[in-house]
């Protein structure tokens, strides 16, 4: 750290702290994340090490947060990132900010460019949500927090992954149904949820449990069947819901253009095989028709991070926390220098179903008093 002048603390947590710093020679402003090593036996959290590895794979992608440097110091690991002024969640929640159709188009274009670069490099993000969409001082949106990301294995190998990824509100229905065989489709689903959130200025599917989450999804998009989604009834945690037909998206998004609704519907198709890929989303006419995307430099700016309470300040990139219900034996230890570790998480029980769309009576009887773990 002899090359940097430490500035204001931007956020703190059980992992350590994030603070602003300035390079002594160049004057470059950066964000430094200091992560504490709990003890010598455990070593550094594998989440941080995995993110370092993946960010190095993605270095140079314009819409992905840039890891400038990383090193160990005593019982800490220090990560240096480009400084970010805030995140998309802060912009969505700020009712003083008016988002035009061009602004929304610009944010979605940058999100999908970042995802397309991830997928081109065979990286599944697995934690797409508004507060992981970071905003640079010049207005560019960059994807951050790759702690849950994975390099996708060869499709022929059929490698399983945990379904307990993504924050629940952005978790795709196949993951909620327990699928462990997936590729890039859950990333696109989550990006579609962010798209809807930009239009609504609130979360689209704020489920209180996994079953409630499915109920909210089916209430908006209709209940799946073997005809509409082949193989759905064979998923590990399949639960039959009362049949509901999908209402027109125009009812929920009355001010959205037909192109916007067409794109949204193809990003949140219940059947993951029917969802667009990230590069196909970018090729959709939504991005090339009037009004065109707002230049990043003219987009709304989030409130300065230094003006926020420390415990709520958005953090750049690596987040140590996992989504509720996370459970996984890490596939392998990833090392940085001499540090390595493995970790496990325990699941949390699911709560009640959505009041709007409930499991069928047959499945309610099978469930008894205990909801299945999804």
Q: What global shape is seen?
A: globular
What proportion strand?
5-15%
CATH class of the largest domain reads: Mainly Alpha
Q: What Rg do the Cα atoms give?
A: 21 Å
CATH architecture of the largest domain: Orthogonal Bundle
The unreliable regions are 307-355, 365-374
Characterise this structure.
The structure is a single chain. This protein has 374 residues and is an alpha+beta fold. It folds into two domains: 4-82, Phosphorylase Kinase, domain 1 (2-Layer Sandwich); 86-298, Transferase(Phosphotransferase), domain 1. Helices cover 26% and strands 14% of the residues. The chain is built from ten helices and ten strands. It has helices spanning 46-57, 88-93, 101-120, 173-176, 185-200, 210-221, 249-252, 258-267, 278-282, 361-367, and strands at 4-13, 16-23, 29-36, 67-73, 76-82, 86-87, 123-124, 133-135, 141-143, 150-151. A five-stranded antiparallel β-sheet has the order 1-2-3-5-4, covered by helices on one side. It is globular and about 65 Å long. It starts with a strand and ends in a 7-residue tail after the last helix. The model is unreliable at 307-355 and 365-374 (pLDDT under 50).
């Amino acid at each position: 750290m002899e090359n940097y002048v430490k500035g204001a603390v931007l956020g703190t947590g059980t992992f350590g702290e994030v603070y602003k710093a300035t390079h002594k020679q160049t004057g470059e402003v950066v964000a430094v994340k200091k992560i504490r090593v709990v003890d010598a036996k455990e070593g550094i959290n594998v989440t941080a090490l995995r993110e370092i590895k993946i960010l190095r794979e993605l270095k140079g992608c314009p819409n992905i947060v840039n890891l400038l440097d990383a090193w160990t110091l005593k019982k800490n690991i220090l990560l240096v990132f480009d400084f970010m002024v805030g995140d998309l969640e802060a912009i969505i929640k700020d009712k003083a900010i008016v988002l035009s159709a061009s602004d929304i188009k610009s944010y979605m274009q940058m999100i999908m460019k970042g995802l397309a670069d991830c997928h081109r490099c065979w990286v599944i993000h697995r934690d797409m949500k508004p507060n992981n969409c970071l905003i640079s001082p010049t207005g560019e949106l960059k994807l951050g927090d790759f702690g849950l990301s994975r390099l996708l294995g060869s499709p022929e190998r059929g490698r399983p992954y945990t379904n307990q990824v993504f924050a629940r509100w952005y978790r795709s229905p196949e993951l909620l149904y327990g699928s462990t065989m997936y590729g890039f489709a859950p990333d696109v689903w989550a990006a579609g949820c962010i798209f809807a959130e930009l239009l609504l200025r609130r979360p689209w599917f704020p489920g209180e449990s996994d079953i409630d989450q499915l109920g909210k999804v089916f209430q908006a998009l209709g209940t799946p069947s073997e005809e509409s989604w082949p193989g759905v009834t064979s998923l590990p945690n399949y639960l039959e819901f009362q049949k509901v037909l999908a209402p027109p998206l125009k009812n929920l998004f009355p001010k959205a253009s037909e192109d916007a609704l067409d794109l949204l519907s193809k990003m949140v198709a219940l059947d993951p095989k029917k969802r667009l890929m990230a590069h196909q989303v970018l090729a959709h006419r939504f991005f090339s028709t009037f009004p065109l995307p707002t230049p990043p430099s003219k987009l709304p700016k989030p409130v300065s991070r230094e003006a926020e309470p420390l415990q709520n300040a958005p953090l750049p990139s690596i987040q140590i926390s996992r989504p509720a219900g996370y459970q996984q034996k890490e596939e392998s230890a990833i090392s940085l220098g001499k540090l390595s570790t493995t970790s496990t998480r325990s699941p949390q029980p699911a709560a009640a179903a959505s009041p709007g769309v409930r499991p069928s009576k047959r499945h309610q009887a099978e469930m008894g008093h205990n909801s299945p773990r999804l």
